[in-house]
Amino acid sequence: MNTDATRAHNPLRRFSIDELRRRRGIKWRRYPQDVLPLWIADMDAEPPAAVVDAVQEALAVGDTGYPPFDSALAEAWDRFASLRWDWRVDPASTLVVPSVLTGVSETLKVITAPGDSVVVNTPGYGPHGHIVRRLGRRLIEVPLNADDRIDLEALRAAFSGAPDGHRPRALLLCSPHNPTGTVHTAEELSAVAELAGTFGVRVVTNEIHAPLVPVGARHVPYLSLPGTEDAVSVFSASKGWHLSGFRGGLLVWGDGAAADMRRIPMDMAHELSGIGIIAQTAALTHGTDWLDGLLAGLDENRRLLGDLLALHLPAVRHRQPQGTYLAWLDCRDLGLGDDPATVFLDRGRVALTPGAEFGPGGEGHVRLNFATSPDILTEAVRRMGTALGTPAA
């Protein structure tokens, strides 16, 4: 099998716009061809060679059946986490799940009961709230602070039951945060763990964007910190290696959560994607150089986006994201109302994710996915500025 050891490069520069338009995925098919799609969290990247090789090898021998119930994916995450974050994953305290959201849902089923309250931060990843409500749990939305970081005092108030007396049973935390790109520090996460311990709140972390933290910031796995023994985290290689079509995730838990996690029904294993596990294991094992090339490309785009916004949309407030490939743009000073995404789509032919999809605090905002080529990113922001009458440079 080829590895990517000698192929560190920017995989976002591989495809032309005409090639991307031939893709069958939802990102490039939802809107007409004259629209530049910077909405859904999917990359315009070439996949890692190691993944292509692994999938082709599996297809060549007809390895398309049910996957084995072994710990290959957990062992791959252990190796990756040890090298990148100096943290070990114990395969005995893991469970492979069909997706991150399945892992979140199954965890909430066993650590909460119908009618219990679950806290999420807002603006935040919309499907988290949808899952909480679908399970018959009560959603408590706690705003981030003005710097898009965890508001510890607001969290304390929510955990204590203020103002309505409902003490929550769990906190569902996105780390790194979507849509803001905030990378929580060890100090912030330790403070969350201390509050959770004080008030008896169970913490579930969605760490799907964890591999997408560049040099200059540091992802801290929640379970690596003291006081997190009864917490559960869910990981996936899908975002970091452009594998959303090869689904899979890994639940990891502390010793204090083991009894609860054993209550997750094992028949869920029949929903696993064998090809997805093969692809994700290959990415984690052989795709680290590819990931480094991607992170370098995202760093370039992160800086480019700041320059483009200053040039074409100077009234947009933008805090450079520390991680992920998602930018959270405050468009309230543009006078476009609560849904600027519709204006940018109708007038500029650029598709962005409306801020309202992320709950309270998202009004007047858009989320922009900059995991694309610099040329496409440049043209998209130029169009956005032109749509509002800003002269093109």
Written account of the structure:
The chain has 393 residues and is an alpha/beta fold. The protein folds into two domains: 132 residues, Alpha-Beta Complex (Aspartate Aminotransferase, domain 1); 236 residues, Aspartate Aminotransferase, domain 2 (3-Layer(aba) Sandwich). 36% of the residues lie in helices and 13% in strands. The protein is built from 13 helices and 13 strands. It has a seven-stranded mixed β-sheet, sandwiched between helices. A four-stranded antiparallel β-sheet has the order 9-10-13-12, with helices on one face. A two-stranded parallel ribbon has the order 1-11. Helix 6 links the parallel strand 3 and strand 4.
Q: Summary?
A:
The chain is of the alpha/beta class and about 400 residues long. The protein contains 13 helices and 13 strands. The protein has two domains: about 15-50 and about 290-385, Aspartate Aminotransferase, domain 1 (Alpha-Beta Complex), CATH 3.90.1150.10; about 50-285, Type I PLP-dependent aspartate aminotransferase-like (Major domain) (Aspartate Aminotransferase, domain 2).
Please give the largest β-sheet: 7 strands, mixed
Based on Cα principal axes, name the global outline: globular
Tell me the number of strands: 13
Name of the top-level CATH class of the largest domain? Alpha Beta
Query: How many separate structural domains?
Result: 2
Structural class: alpha/beta
Looking at this structure, what is the CATH superfamily of the largest domain?
Answer: Type I PLP-dependent aspartate aminotransferase-like (Major domain)
Strand content: 5-15%
Rg for CA atoms: 21 Å
Low-confidence runs (pLDDT<50, min 5 residues)? 1-7
